[in-house]
Amino acid sequence: MKDLSNYRKSYEKSELLENQIPEDPINLFHKWFYEAEDLNAAEEVNAMTVTTIGLDGFPKARVVLLKKFNEEGFIFYTNYNSEKGKAILNNPNVCLSFFWPTVERQIIIKGIAEKTAENISDNYFASRPDGSKLGAIVSPQSEVIPNREFLEDNLKQLEKEWEGKEILRPAHWGGFLVRPVEVEFWQGRPNRLHDRIRYQLADNYEWKIERLSP
């Protein structure tokens, strides 16, 4: 067994103080997101971990790409019949997390997911390259398949079927909007005394802001 106890790093790049933050977590997310992008904090700054509670009762986390965010919440796209999609439709309570090591920052979002309107899913699907569109159609996501050739053969068949035609979004594929109820911002600090600021949505739909001990 490899001993990792000596893997340590000192976090010293920034700070997160109450007198420097907005009243709304979306505004702070916007600021941090584009700072991370400007500083090349990750190869894909919009990569986030989505954690769901599966039909088997276990939590499961996987990385997907954030495609849009606004005052309503955070949007990503998936196959509704996938393990992830079924889990969300059964239990819409999800967690999103972003980690940008270059800027020593993490954001954890608890929220409630719902399907996006069909026109939103249609518009995004239409913007995708044809290969990605066909990939969404050909893949029975999360299902057991016999081999790699199963996918490649089906893709070749679909390419022939859709040649010269507009590729339409399948009904089982679309977006989820995650409406946040809690957002925690983590900024690495020296001596493991990290800054943690939590926004919680109160009953009056205003955000309660608290500092958490690291």
Automatic annotation (TrEMBL):
Amino acids binding FMN: R62, V63, V64, L65, L66, K67, Y77, T78, K84, Q106, Q141, S142, W186, R196
Extract the InterPro entries matched here.
Pyridox_Oxase (IPR000659), Pyridox_Oxase_CS (IPR019740), Pyridox_Oxase_N (IPR011576), Pyridoxamine_oxidase_dimer_C (IPR019576), Split_barrel_FMN-bd (IPR012349)
Q: Which GO terms describe its molecular function?
A: FMN binding; pyridoxamine phosphate oxidase activity
Q: Which residues form the Pyridoxine 5'-phosphate oxidase dimerisation C-terminal domain?
A: 173-214
Q: Which GO terms describe its biological process?
A: pyridoxine biosynthetic process
Cofactor binding remark: Binds 1 FMN per subunit.
What does the function comment of this entry state?
Answer: Catalyzes the oxidation of either pyridoxine 5'-phosphate (PNP) or pyridoxamine 5'-phosphate (PMP) into pyridoxal 5'-phosphate (PLP).
Family as reported in the entry's similarity comment: Belongs to the pyridoxamine 5'-phosphate oxidase family.
Q: What is this protein called?
A: Pyridoxine/pyridoxamine 5'-phosphate oxidase
